[in-house]
Amino acid sequence: MTALALLPWLLLLVPTAVAVGGYQMLRSRNAHIWIGEHVRRKRPARTNGPVHVMFCFVDHFEPMWHGGDLAAQRRRVDRWCSGYRELAGRHRDADGRPPQHTFFYPEEEYAEEHLDKLSSLCSDGYGEIEVHLHHDNDTEANFRESIARFCKVLHERHGALPRHPASGELQFGFIHGNWCLDNSRPDGRWCGLNNELVLLRELGCYADFTLPSAPSDTQTATINSIYYATDDPQRAKSHDRGEPVRTGGRASGDLMIVQGPLALDWRNRKFGLVPRIENSDIRRSCPPTPSRVDSWVRAGVHVEGRPEWVFVKIHTHGTQETDMDTLLGPQVDAMHDYLERAYNDGQRHVLHYVTSREVYNIIKAAEAGLDGDPSQYRDYVLPPPRASWAGGRA
After folding, report:
1. Are 226 and 311 in contact (CB under 8 A)?
2. pLDDT of residue 37
3. Which domains, and CATH codes, for the chain?
4. Is the pTM of this model over 0.85?
5. Which of the two residues, 305 and 12, has the higher pLDDT score?
6. Cβ contacts of residue 114 below 8 Å, gap of 6+?
7. pLDDT exceeds 70 at position 3
C-alpha cells in the first residue's frame, strides 16, 4: 500500500491516539470521576443587574506541618499574623471590608499560644477560625469527644465559633484532613467513619468546605455546586451526589456541602494538548493569575434560582514555607487588585469578601428567597462568633 493510500488512515488514527492518550492522562489525575459532570454542566443563566461575587479564602492552617518544632510553628504563625494584616489592610470590597481569611485549624495540632495569636488577628476584623481534622481508623465515640472538646475550647478560650440563636449550641464549619470526608478514600485510610456526615450534623457542623479535592480520588462526581448530602451509614462517600440548595427550598439530608470551583484549564495544557485541572488551590506552583480568577467566577457556583449571587471559595495550606511568599506576597496582593478592579465596578459585578460562616448565612438567605444585596445577610442565621468578645476571653 502506498504512503498516499495510508494517509486517510493516519488522519483517522492520529486524533484517536491523541484522544485516548488525553483520556489516560486525565484518568491518571482521577478526572474520570467528575469529567462527565463537567461536560454536561450548563453555564449559569444570564442575569439582570450586577453579579455579586462572594469571595471566600479557606485555609487548611497547620502550624505543625511536616513535624515542625515549636520554633518553626511560632515563625509560621507570627508571619501570618503580621503579613496578613499588612496585605489585607491594602484592600477593600464593595462594603469597605478587607479580605477575610477563614483559618480551619486542626484539632490534633491544638496549641493555645498559636490560637491566641489567630484569635487576635480575627478579632481585628481579618477572618474567623473553624474546625479542621486529620484522623485515621477513627471510632464514633472518639470523633464525638474530640470535636466536642475542641469546639468548646475554641469558643471558651479563643472566642471562636458562634452559638445557634435558637438552640444555643455551638456551630462550626468543617474541612476534613486528607480530603477524606465520610471515609471517601477507596482504601479507607484517613477517616474510618461511614456515618461522618450524620456525626458532623449532630455535633453542630453547619456546612462542609472540603471540596474540591481533585486530583485526589476522594473528589466527588458532583462539582461546582452547593447541595445537601444524605448519609448512608452502610457506605462511604455518601456526599458524592446530593440535593441542590435552591431558592424556595428547605434544608434536607444531613449536611450542606459548599464546593469551590473545579474545571479543566484549557489555557494551561500539558504538552500543549491536554488541559490541566483548575481546582481553586493557591500555592507557589499555582499562583492566582487573572485568568484563574476569571475561571473561578465563570464556574458560577450558586444557589439554584439565584445565579446573580456567585460564590468563589478557594483554598490553601497556609503554613508551608514554600508557599508563604505567594500567599502573603505580591501575587496574592495582585489577585486582590484584580478582583477589586475587574469584579467590583458596581454595574456588572459587586465584590464581597466573606468568611465561611458568612457564606453559609448568605446561602440560607438565598434559600429563603431573599434577594438584593447579599452583604446584608452576612449574619442571617449564625451571628458573629465574637459577639461577647472581650480582651481575649469569650
Report:
1. yes
2. 81
3. 17-43+51-377 (3.20.20)
4. yes
5. 305
6. 63, 73, 74, 77, 105
7. no
